[in-house]
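Researcher: I'd like a candidate sequence for this fold, 157 residues long. If you have to choose between options at a position, lean toward the conservative one.
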């Protein structure tokens, strides 16, 4: 039942992040969220690796919380940057590419975890995320999407 408790904690943290997202989006600049949220996720992955112990599993919940905070920001940004006639196609392609990337990276990380340790594989995942996020953020800032005005959302959704 410990796995169930872990999953419950992770999903609860993600729900808390979703609940806090509208407030966070209104009070924080988009550029700040686009930089700090991925940096925090990378940091939590590295801490999971370096502090590999049962109490360090709280960082899994922190990852879910931060990812949920970032979701409405990226969604609004895509809606602003992509013309409506192309939006569905581009977002579908984004989803397809993410799925293909996941299908390649996860087995490699699982194999690495089998050969070394799960904690090390999680640390490698954090480093890979940092390496992939940096150029994407640079493109977003260059395209002006990171500095666009904040969307106005109502509390709770």
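Model: Candidate sequence:
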């Amino acid at each position: 039942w410990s796995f169930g408790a872990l999953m419950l904690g992770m999903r609860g943290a993600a729900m808390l992040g979703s609940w806090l997202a509208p407030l966070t989006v209104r009070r924080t600049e988009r550029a700040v969220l686009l930089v700090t949220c991925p940096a925090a996720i990378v940091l939590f992955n590295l801490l999971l690796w370096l502090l590999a112990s049962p109490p360090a599993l709280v960082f899994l919940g922190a990852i879910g919380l931060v990812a949920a905070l970032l979701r409405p920001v990226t969604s609004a940004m895509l809606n602003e940057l992509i013309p409506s006639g192309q939006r569905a196609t581009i977002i579908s392609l984004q989803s397809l590419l993410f799925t293909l990337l996941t299908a390649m990276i996860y087995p490699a990380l699982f194999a690495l975890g089998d050969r070394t340790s799960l904690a090390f594989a999680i640390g490698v995942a954090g480093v890979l995320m940092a390496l992939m996020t940096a150029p994407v953020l640079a493109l977003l800032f260059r395209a002006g999407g990171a500095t666009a005005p904040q969307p106005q959302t109502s509390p709770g959704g």
